[in-house]
Every structure is written in C-alpha cells, then in structure tokens.
Amino acid sequence: MGGVEFEGTTDPTVAEQWLERMERVFEQLECTNAAKFKYAISLLQKDAYDWWVSVPNAKAKPPVLTWDDFVKSFRAKYVPPVYYDAKKKELSRYAKGIIDGERDKCRRFEEGLNDYIRKSVAILQLDDFSKLISAALTWERIDKEEASRRENKFRKGNSEYGGPSKKGKFDYSKTE
Q: Comparing 10-14, 30-34, 165-169, which segment has the lowest mean pLDDT?
C-alpha cells in the first residue's frame, strides 16, 4: 500500500516527512478518515507505538479519537513549534514580501497554534517572535505536566481507595 513503519524519532523533519508520505498514500487509496487513523496506528512501531498507547483514549473501544486527533497528537510529540519557526526562517529568504515584519510574523505563528495554546499565548500580545515561541513552548510544557499530574492523581486515587464510599461523602458517626 505504500505506507512505511514509523518507530519514533528526535528529528522533526523525519516525522513530518512520514506524515506527509502517509497523506499521499491515503490520497491515492481514497481512504476515509477512520481508515487513515487505523492504518497509521498499525504502522507505529517501538517508541512510537509506546508513545501512542500512552495518549489518553488511544486504545478506547470503539475509537473515540479521529485522524485529526492523531495528527495533532503526533505533531505535538514529534514536530515542535520551533521546527516550524526554523522552516519559516529558512523559506522566508526566498519570499521576503511574504514575511513583512515581526508583528505580522507573530500573528501568523499564533494563527497556526492549537486553539488551547493560542488562547493563552495571544492574550500576551507579544511582538517579539522569540518570546512568543518561548511562551508557547512554556505553556505547552506546563499543560503537559498538569495533565500528567491529573492522570497520576486519578490513577492513584482509584487504586488506593477502591472507588467511592458507600457511606457518602462524610461519615458523621466519626465526628464525636
């Protein structure tokens, strides 16, 4: 079918190229989004598959995640915003009129962010591109840490206490 296994990488270019190749294969095969999702997951190997099963709801039956969810999660893991910044800088020398100034560059970058990051970063109204990227990366890191903490707290709470109490939220018999 033309798809290639993906084992994970630290090189965003390799990850982006794999995703682009998958899109070309899917276009040739005229795949539905559901088929794209299943096929892409089947090609994840080693570290990439280990990462995928750690994504919340990744193994839910029936699937609750979509192809778009996969692409967003994949790019968040393997293609950081700094990669896009470097690519834009590299290509901007060939299209000087397209990237007019720092402020416009910042607004374009904000428009490309995921909604949940854009809302938090746009309010800062940063016109320094480096600071904007730093703010976006910091917000993303903090969000991931908080999600991990919530997940650990949820797991810990469910395993230690064995679920909700049959007595209710407060046991009045122990107050005296």
A: 165-169
pLDDT at position 133 over 60? yes
CA distance 56 to 70: 11
- pLDDT value of position 28: 94
Please name the amino acid found at residue 54: S
Amino acid identity of residue 125, one-letter, is Q
Reference 112, options 89, 143, 133; nearest CA is: 133
Q: Where are the domains of the chain?
A: 1-79, 81-155
Distance (Å, whole) CA 160 – CA 156:
6
Residues 6 or more apart in contact with residue 65 via CB below 8 angstroms: 37, 55, 57, 58, 73
The pLDDT score that the predictor gives to residue 47 is 95
Q: pLDDT for 45-80, tens place per residue?
A: 999 999 999 988 888 877 788 899 999 999 989 988
Q: Return the SS3 of 99.
A: coil
Six-digit token string for 146: 């908080």
Whole-structure pTM over 0.90, yes or no?
no
Best CA proximity match to 6, nearest among 87, 35, 33, 16: 16
Long-range contacts of 11-14 (CB under 8 A, 24+ apart): 12/78, 12/79, 12/80, 12/83, 13/83
